[in-house]
Amino acid sequence: MPATPIRAMITPHFSEAEMACPCCGWFDPTYVRLLCARLESLRELVGPLTILSGSRCRAHNSERGGARDSMHLLSLAADIQCGIDSMRYRIVNMLQVQDWGGIGVNVAYVHADLRRFHNGGLPSVLWAYPVRG
Questions:
Q1: What's the pLDDT tens digit per position in 42-67?
Q2: How does strand 51-53 pair with strand 14-15?
Q3: What are the φ and ψ backbone dihedral angles of 31, each rounded to 5 degrees?
Q4: Percentage of the chain surpassing pLDDT 70?
Q5: Residues near 5 by beta carbon (within 8 Å), at least 6 away in sequence
Q6: How far apart are CA 109 and CA 131, in angstroms?
Q7: Which residues contact 24 (CB under 8 A, 6 or more apart)?
């Protein structure tokens, strides 16, 4: 995949730099705008958000142990840093209220994706990541 040059802010609080694949700079311009608009709405409800992972190329997704059909590969997912239980609860609750399609809960982050916008919509899912010790 050719890299998309890192340029500017996508929305008032989310930049191309934080949403692009860290190894090559790739992202899908159409889907990443949709994702960031939805993240802005979430931010209005829960406060500032730190994105740990946005778009990923196949190589980076594989390095991270991402799913073969990860929504990160389409610029339809973000991992939101969240190490505090009460904040994690608020984020998950608001993601459900806002009808995000995929929600994954980890001790350090919450995965949020818009899978219902891909290929006519995939079923909504909620999962917990295994705790590794």
A1: 999 999 999 999 999 999 999 999 99
A2: unpaired
A3: -70, -35
A4: 94
A5: 25
A6: 12
A7: 1, 3, 57, 59, 60
The pLDDT of residue 132: 73
Is residue 122 very low, low, confident or very high in pLDDT (cuts 50, 70, 90)?
A: confident
- In angstroms, how far is CA 14 from the centroid of its own chain? 12
Assigned fold of 9-128: Muramoyl-pentapeptide Carboxypeptidase; domain 2 (3.30.1380)
User: Is the pTM above the cut of 0.85?
Assistant: yes
Give DSSP secondary structure letters for the chain: -PPPPP-SEEETTEEHHHHS-TTT----HHHHHHHHHHHHHHHHHH----EEE----HHHHHHTT--TT-GGGGT-EEEEE--SHHHHHHHHHHHHHTT-SEEEE-SSEEEEE-GGGSTT-PPPEEEEPPP--
